[in-house]
Amino acid sequence: MIPGLGQGGKMSASDPNSKIDILEEPKIVKKKINSAYCAPGDIKDNGLLAFLEHVIQPIQSLQAGKETFNFFIDRPDKYGGPITYESLDQLKSDFESEKLSPVDLKSGMADKINELLAPIKEKFNSNKEFQEFGEKGYPVEKPKEEKKVKKVKNKGTRYPGSDKAPASSDASVEKATEALDQTKLN
């Protein structure tokens, strides 16, 4: 099982930030990879390295027809310049010894994933039948157009300005007023 992009746990459909969808936009892929958990030197609990090992490397081997690994990282010259790894073990070793930073690994991962997804997205976008299947399989929830009916709040009958003051209330007010008037006179 491939760990998710967050700290601990697996990739999960219920947590959109823990996974990369096959039709994900390149900007979103980059954003998710950049926010992925990737502690410097940690090769055990690293979802990005697991993704490299269990997804990227097998795809590259299938495409080449033989066991192969080629991972390019386009980093600025001030941080060592571009680098290409031809061995996953070498990449892991450099990451563990912190010769390869999490920022560089994330940059290379985002580029590689977008490179792998580009032909899939292109095929999907050019094929109406695929798009139809996508809509049926993953329907977009439409916002509800019904507005919630507001309930009239019952404020009661004894608040100032109430038009619904009960008759008995008026009578008791009158009695109290009369009683006060009589005590004033005496």
From TrEMBL:
Coiled coil regions in record: none
Q: Mark out the compositionally biased spans (Basic and acidic residues).
A: 132-148
Q: Which domain of life is it from?
A: Eukaryota
What is one GO cellular-component annotation here? Answer: cytoplasm
A single Gene Ontology biological process assigned to it is: tyrosyl-tRNA aminoacylation
Print the keywords alphabetically.
Aminoacyl-tRNA synthetase, ATP-binding, Ligase, Nucleotide-binding, Protein biosynthesis
This entry's Enzyme Commission designation comes to 6.1.1.1
- Write down the chemical reaction(s) this protein catalyses: tRNA(Tyr) + L-tyrosine + ATP = L-tyrosyl-tRNA(Tyr) + AMP + diphosphate + H(+)
Pfam families attached to this UniProt entry = tRNA-synt_1b (PF00579)
Q: GO: which molecular function terms?
A: ATP binding; tyrosine-tRNA ligase activity
The annotated region (Disordered) lies at 132-186
The entry's family comment says: Belongs to the class-I aminoacyl-tRNA synthetase family.
> Know the name of this protein?
tyrosine--tRNA ligase
Q: Which organism is it from?
A: Cerrena zonata
Q: Which gene encodes it?
A: TYS1
